[in-house]
Amino acid sequence: MKVIQRWPTAMATLLLLFCSSWGSASADVIISGYVYDTATDSALTEVRVTVKEAEDVSPALTNKHGKYTLVIPDRTEARLSFAKHGYEPVTMLVKLTESNIRHDVRLKLVRVSIEMTGFKSGFHIKGKVWGVDPAQYGNYKLVVYILTDQWYVHPYAENKPRRGFAAIDSTGSWEIETVWRGYQAYKVAFLLVPKEAYTAPKIELLKGKEPDIALLNVIESKAHKIIDAPEGI
Asked: Across the strands, what pairs with 33?
């Protein structure tokens, strides 16, 4: 007859408690995700991601794909902070309800400043963009509008560099052609827009027609800068 040995009940209970306590000690939570530019949806690199009031959690930097990963010791919630030069910082509370959590974030550029540094009638307008992360220059373009009897794209309603918009080079500078149409404009508006997500509308100039109020309101709300038009534009 085979004899079956049984552990004392007390020993079994102690072993169960030990295993349970050992398992709970390693209950870390992994939070990972991607950080994007709000306007362009492009991945943002070198965004610093930290957990507020948690010295035991090492900060993370997003990689070339905009991805970050944080390992957080057993908690029920964490206050995450996302920061990058040129962008508005974001802080949010995340509930740690699972062992692996996906959390994506979008950051907005801080207030952008556009400067017109040079102008020559019939040749070009030159300028500079400030407040944009240099790594993001290629994701934006500058559209120039002129106000005469209504707003229209200057100098041509073509979606091409130096014609319908100005590309931004590695120094933040831009340049667009000009055309003297024989009558003086009132205002010039400069819009910084996502390169792929925005196409400047074609505006026809029709004498005797009322200004396009809808377009006027859109431009005035979106323009990063509006100036009095220089002589000859």
From this structure: 68
Phi and psi at residue 201, to the nearest 5°: -70, 150
Render pLDDT for 60-104 as a digit per residue (tens, 0 to 9): 999 999 999 999 987 888 999 999 877 888 999 999 988 999 999
Question: Hey, which residues does 128 pair with through a beta bridge?
Answer: 115, 173
Q: In the chain, where are the structural domains located?
A: 28-107, 113-228
How many Å apart are CA 168 and CA 219, to the nearest integer? Answer: 20
Beta pairing partners, 47: none
Question: CATH: 3.30.420.10, 2.60.40.1120, 3.10.20.600, 1.20.1250.20. Which one for 28-107?
Answer: 2.60.40.1120
The CATH T-level fold of domain 113-228 is Immunoglobulin-like (2.60.40)
This model's pTM is above 0.70 = no
Lowest-confidence segment of 79-83, 94-98, 158-162, 224-228 by average pLDDT? 158-162
Of 28, 58, 60, 57, the residue nearest 44 (C-alpha):
60
What's the CA gap between 187 and 148, in Å, rounded?
7
Is the model's pLDDT at 129 over the cut of 60? yes
pLDDT of residue 36: 93
Q: Which residues contact 179 (CB under 8 A, 6 or more apart)?
A: 122, 154, 155, 156
What is the C-alpha separation between 222 and 112, in angstroms, rounded?
11
CA end-to-end span of the chain: 108
